[in-house]
Amino acid sequence: MFFYILGGVALLFLFRWFRERKRVPDPSMKYVYITGCDTGFGNLLAKHMDQLGFRVIAGCFTEKGEDELRKATSDRLTTLALDVGNVDSINKVADSIKAKVGEKGLWAVVNNAGISLPSGPCDWLTINDYKPMLEVNLCGVIAVTLSVLPLIKKAKGRVVNVASVFGRISPFGGPYCVSKYGVEGFNDSLRRNMAPFGVKVLCIEPGFFKTSVTDSSMIEQNLHTLWERLSQDVKDDYGSDYMKRVGAMLNTRFLKMLDSDLMKVVSSMEHAVTAVHPRTRYSPGWDAKFFWLPLSYMPTFFADFLLAKDAVKPKA
Q1: Closest listed residue to residue 57, CA positions, set 44, 38, 76
Q2: Collapsing DSSP states into helix, strand and coil, what is residue 168?
């Protein structure tokens, strides 16, 4: 009986692999709009899609990001200044895209732009620490999507939202996980709303990767800034050596968790844009697939126990 089940699972994976190989035709006729292309995943994806022959519209936050990307790509790629935390900037880019794509419509938007700081225990933060990240990571995703959704409907194209496996489980405090849970909710509702129009809505849920977002020195500096503004009562709750223990964790266990192969995420994004039969969700990274995602399905008390076991604890 066991071998029949094993054989069935193997056939299922073989069928999925064969089905997912087919790619959409005529990439040179398809426009792909990507946000957050200055560095990291967005930058690599823009270059990769350009090499595949797609007409890439790359949203960059800085002039330096635009200049460097143009130098590294073909004339098919267009860069536009974009601040996903600013509605006027989003609408200006959407107007430029509408003029560029015309009646063909927009094949895909990849909502990649995001920030990860400030981050820390919830009782270290104020509502004003939450608002900027929610504005970029959640409201920015919604605003960018809605600004070009009529063009995507026209092309029967794709919306690709970069969430995180931490939109499924929250192992640490602060606005990051909250914002990514929100992206997951928006993604699911949009996917069901757009299905009758032939628009596919896909979600990327990476684990820990080595990017500017996970720079341990920036994270540690952010925590020190938050620590310095705390009241003495809160500092006493955590203990005078708490920051020292957090720093040790960031420079040992945290660094070991980071995957330096960013192409795992870029390949998932590319597949979501180019495959005739894309997956609904992608979980690039071994930690996402085999630890965080399974942990999110476990009973709450068990997940809490495992996370607390490895956490840097306040003083006893």
Answers
A1: 76
A2: coil
Token reading at 83: 């601040």
Burial track 89-108 (b if 16+ CB lie within 10 A, e otherwise):
bbebbbeebeebbeeebbbb
Enumerate the β-bridge partners of residue 56: 32
Give yes or no: 238 in active site: no
pLDDT, position 308 = 86
Sign of the torsion angle spanned by Cα atoms 40, 45, 48, 50: negative
Q: Measure the N-to-C terminal CA separation of the chain; round to a whole number of Å.
A: 51
| Closest of 264, 284, 269, 259 to residue 209, by C-alpha | 259
Structure token digits, residue 295: 């942990």
CA 125 to CA 177: how far, in whole Å? 14
Contacts of 195 (CB under 8 A, 6+ apart): none
- As given in the structure block, the two tokens for residue 180 are 């990514």
The pLDDT tens digits for 95-114 are 999 999 988 999 999 999 99
Out of 176, 181, 238, 242, the active site residue is: 176
Res 1: pLDDT: 66
The Cα 184–Cα 176 span in angstroms is: 13
Q: Tell me, what amino acid is at 270?
A: E
Q: Please give the distance of CA 53 from its chain centroid, rounded to a whole number.
A: 24
The one-letter code for the residue type at 174 is G
The 3-state DSSP class for residue 80 equals strand
Q: Assess contact for 154 and 103: CB atoms under 8 A.
A: yes
Q: Which residues of the chain have pLDDT under 50?
A: none
